[in-house]
C-alpha cells in the first residue's frame, strides 16, 4: 500500500501537535508494511489556484503553474492508495496551507456535471483517487470543536473518507502530569496506523484511546489555560518562548494556586509522608489554604486547619515568585521575606514534593 501523509502544520521542532500525532500514526502504517511518503507543506512552494480552468480545457489534468504541487505532490497524490490529511484546527476548520493544497487538486476532476446517488451535482474524477484519513488537533477540550471540520471533510471526500482522528486539548497533553495519558494516546495512534493499512478502518477501542479525555473538569482546564496566557502576556513571550525559558504559569488567586500545586505534586517525592501544610497569604491575595498529603496523595482546601505540621506565613506575591522560580526560597527565608512555624524539615523537602 502506498500512503501519502500531508502535514500542513507551520510549526515544527516539537511545537507541532499535528506532527506529533502524525509521527505515531505513520510509524504504525510503516510497521504494517505500507510505503509512506510524508510531505510537510511548509517546505513546499505551492501557488494559489487562480480559477483559470486551464487544467480543465487547454491542458486537461495539468495545472498551468509549474511548482512543487505540479511537479511533485500531485503525482504522489494520484499514485497513493491512502492519503492522510493532517492539519491543525484553525478557526474550526483546516488551515490555509491545507486549503491551498486541496484547491490545487482541481486537475484531478473533470468539468462535466453528473448527478450522484444522493441527488447532488458533482464533477467526475479524472483519476481514481485513494481513500482519505483526516487528522487534526485543537486546544479546546471539547470534541465538538471539530464539528465544522468534520462536516467539511465528509462533504469533500464522501465515501473515500475512512477515518477522522481528532485530538482535543492537544497542548495540555504536553504538560507535566500528562505523561501516562500521552503514552496511551501515542500507542493508540500507532495501532490506528496499523489498522488502517491492514483493515482499512480504526477499531472503536483504538479510537476511544485516541479520544481519551484530558480535562475531567472544564473549569479547571480554563483556569490553567488562562493562567498560562496571562503569564505569556505579562512576560511578553510566545508559547514557544514560554517553553524554551521553562516558565511556569503564575497563579493570581487562591484557586489558581491550589490547582497548580496539585498539578505539580510529586507522589514519588512524598512517599509515605503524612503531613499538612498551611499557607497564610497577605498582600495582593489575602486568605489561607492548606494541603493534606497522605501517602502519595494530596488534597488542597481553602481556609485554615487545626494543628498543621508546617505553617507558611507569606505575602502572596513572594510565594508566587518562589513557586515560579523567580526567587530562591532559601534566600527569601534568610532575608525574612516570609515566616514559617512548625516542621522545618518539611520546608526543606518542598523541592521533592513539588516539581517546577
Q: What labels describe this entry?
A:
12 strands, 5-stranded parallel β-sheet, 356 residues, 14 helices, 5-stranded mixed β-sheet, Rossmann fold, alpha/beta, Nonspecific Lipid-transfer Protein, Chain A
Can you give a write-up of this model?
- The protein is of the alpha/beta class and 356 residues long.
- It has two domains: 2-210, Flavodoxin domain (Rossmann fold, 3-Layer(aba) Sandwich); 218-353, SCP2 sterol-binding domain (Nonspecific Lipid-transfer Protein, Chain A).
- It has 14 helices and twelve strands.
- It has helices spanning 17-31, 68-79, 96-103, 147-157, 179-198, 204-210, 218-235, 239-244, 254-264, 267-270, 316-323, 329-334, 344-348, 350-353; strands at 2-7, 35-40, 82-88, 114-115, 121-122, 131-137, 161-167, 274-282, 287-294, 297-302, 310-315, 339-342.
- Strands 2-1-3-6-7 form a five-stranded parallel sheet, with helices on both faces.
- Helix 1 packs across helix 5 and helix 5 (179-198) packs antiparallel against helix 6.
- The radius of gyration is 26 Å and the shape is elongated.
